[in-house]
Amino acid sequence: MTLDYALAGLVTAGLLAYLVYALIRPERF
């Protein structure tokens, strides 16, 4: 069960990082 939480956390962190990057550098989108 720990692996599931770790994977979900990793995916969530990746999505948040992508959104922040998109907000910081909007000229690439």
Automatic annotation (TrEMBL):
TM ranges: 6-24
Record keywords, A-Z: Membrane, Transmembrane, Transmembrane helix
Matching InterPro entries: KdpF (IPR011726)
Entry annotated with the keyword Membrane: yes
One Pfam family named in its UniProt record: Potass_KdpF
Gene Ontology molecular function: P-type potassium transmembrane transporter activity
Keyword Transmembrane helix carried by entry: yes
Cellular component, GO annotation: plasma membrane
Organism domain of life: Bacteria
NCBIfam families assigned to the protein according to its UniProt record, in alphabetical order: potass_kdpF, PRK14759.1
Designated name of the protein: K(+)-transporting ATPase subunit F
Protein species of origin: Azospirillum cavernae
Upper lineage: Bacteria, Pseudomonadati, Pseudomonadota, Alphaproteobacteria, Rhodospirillales
